[in-house]
Structures are given as C-alpha cells and as structure tokens.
Design goal:
This protein is an alpha+beta fold. It has 11 helices and 12 strands. The strands form 3 sheets. Strands 2-1-5-4-3 form a 5-stranded antiparallel beta sheet. Strand 3 and strand 4 form a beta hairpin. The longest helix has 52 residues. The mean pLDDT is 80.
Length: 447
Amino acid sequence: MKIQTRLSLFSLLSFGSIFFVLSFAIYLSFSRNIERETNRNLEKSAFLTAFYYLEKDELSEKEYQPIYEQFNNLINEFSYQVYDESNAIVYGTDLLYIENVKLDEIRKSVSVPFNYEKYSCFGIFYEDNEGDFVVITFQSHDLQRSNLHVLLKILSWSFGIGLLVFFFVSRWVASRAYKPFRNIIGEVHGIKPSGDIRPIRKPATEDELDELVDTFNELLERINQSMLIQKNFVRYVSHEFRTPLAGILGNLEVFSLKGRDPEDYHQLTDYLINQIKHLNGILDTLMWVSDLKPHENMDTDSRIDEIIWDIIERIKEEKPSVKIFFDLDVDNCDELRLRVKVEYIQLFVCLYNLIHNAVKFSNQQPVTLILTNSGNKLVLKIIDNGIGFSPDKLRQLKTPFMRGRNAVTIEGNGLGLTISLRILEKNNIEYCIESEPDKGTVVAIYF
C-alpha cells in the first residue's frame, strides 16, 4: 500500500473515531440535558397546578389572574394529578395510577422526579390550609424521543457526509503533500549508473524531506566518487606504479652494463623483493581506496618520521636539486609518540603524493615539513610557496583529474591529490588545506 493511500486511510480512521466519540458525547449530553429540562419544567408545572387549585381561596382576584393565565397557556403541554391525604385524585386526569408507596415517598422527600410507564413524572408534597396534597405532573416520553431521534439522524448524516468529504479532502491533501516525494522518486528513477550521477533537486519544503534529500545527495556523491575511482582504477595504478617501476628498471639497466659478483646479485635481489612488496602494498591500497577490496582491520601502526625521511630520500633521488626542510618538533621525541594508527603503505602513498605535489608546484622554492604536537594530536604541515589554488579549485580538490589553469604547463594528471585525500578520509583522519594563488599551499594533517 502506498504511503499516500495509507496516509488517507489513517486520517479517515482518525477523523471517524474522533467524530464518533464526539457524536456519542453530544448525544449523551443532549439526552441528559433534555431529561433535566423536562424535570425542571414539570416541577414548575407542579407548583403552578398547586397554586391554581389550592391557592385560589387565599389570593385576591388580581393576584390569582397571572396564575390562571399561565396555567391555561401551559395546560396543553403536560398532564397533572392532585392527590389528597387519602390518596384519592381530587383534581386532574386518571391516566396514571400511582401506587401509594410512591405517594408516600413523595410526601417524605417533598419533591421526586421519576419515570412511570411511558411518562416522565414529577411529584411534590404541598401543604395547604385545606389539607396536605401530592401534586404530580407528567409528560409523554414521545417528545423527548422525537428530539433525540432528530439529533441522532443529524449526527448520522453528518458522520456519513463528513467521512465522504473528509476522504476526498484527505486524498487531495495527501496528493499535494506527497507530490515532492513523487518528484524525488521520478528523479531517482532517472539516475543512470553508467553516467555522471547528478544530485537530486531539493523540494524546498524546509522540513524532514529536505534533510532526507541532503542525506541522499551525500550518499550519491560518495557513490559517484566511488564509481569514478573504480572507473579510473587503471589510471591510479599507472600513476602510483610509475615511480617504483622506473626505479626497478633503472637498477636493472645499470646492473646489466657489466658483470657482477654474487654479492651484487644478492643486493639486487633484496632490492627487487622490497620493491615488489612495495608495489603489492600499493596495489592493495589502491584497491581498498577504489572500494574494490574490503578493508582488513589490522592492528598496525607506522613511524611517521621514518616514512617522511624515506619519501624525502626518494624524491631527492628523482630530483636532486629539490630543497625539502623537515622540522621535527615533537616533545619527548620517542617511538611511541611518533607512531600513528595507519597501515604503512597507505600512509606512504598518501604522504608521498602530498609532498611530491608540494615539490612539483613550488616553483622551485623550498618545501617545509613540520611535524609537531598540538594537544593530544600529532600534526604534520606540508608548506610550499608555489602556484597555489584558486578558491573555486580549492572546493574541487577531491575531484579526480582536477587541475588548475595555472598548472597546465606542469606534468601531472590530477590523480595524486585525489588518492591522498581518499586515504585520509577512509582512515577518518582530519585534514585542512589552505591556499592562495601565487602564494602557496598549506596542508595540515591531524593524526
């Protein structure tokens, strides 16, 4: 069942239940009010009857005249009986036969409302100079029942028509309220996994739906980035393998220029084994970064200063003229303080790309690396005075192949920074990048 239909039915059920309870309360309240009003009128009529028959000899004609007129005006609305001390009817109709027990109860209680057969009755005990009397006025239940029947019919018709009207109104309201959902569903159906996944337009409802769309768009962005990374996995491998393979090739070429003794062969073998292990680690890291391989929770850590020295050495082998200053400013510089909970190859790939980029875009200016403590965190800052990023490019740093206009003459394909940031994010490592065109870039990483 669709949410729209379920919402309409739920609203209809709620309305019907509330209307039924209110109708029942109105009917019950009206019934009790009619009963109270009837007893009140019968009580007045009883006293009026007593005055009419028993006070005539004690009142002047002027005083008696209003009672006479009022009694004759109301006589068609009720019936009455006046009993003497011997329980005989002295005035009124003999439609009812009231038992002596009830008459004695009236004498004892002075005034008593009661029902007798199909009549509502009210009896009063009236003391007069001619004797003590019981005056009973009564009225048929038909009028009360007729009023209640009319009310019941009105409530029933109102209930039926109200349900019908509310059903169509709730359907219309649900349709209007559900329209943003239908639009979003239509946009989701239009998403093609093979193409660039565009974010869903926000419905501007300023409610939980906006929040849901924002959350879904964040998910789409992550999926888009993951798909793009997987799609360019071969390029990532090519980017990361180029330097190690070049080192291997260079060593083999040099080694083949002349004959070697057994010790040279052992050294070359050890070098090749280490490089192959390094390449295998890079491949695992790239597969993990590309979501092609699940992350294995390994309780491992790495000495960050050793990795940085290794990276500096490798970069200087490639570019001997490069100037890289490493400022190690860590209190109580011991092994435990310099170890971070990141797998070695992942951290190596991440920092190598960041430091190599700083060197490449530094306009041949020195690059400074600062490793220091800040509170309970180890902070690495990579500072260059190179070409920098414009504000719009700074917001697109995680986009693969993104390169600024001021970098078109510099060799590269825009993959290294993407891979580094991806490694940091997947390891839940905070980072901050500040940059200004022609002034340089500062990358701060918080371990």
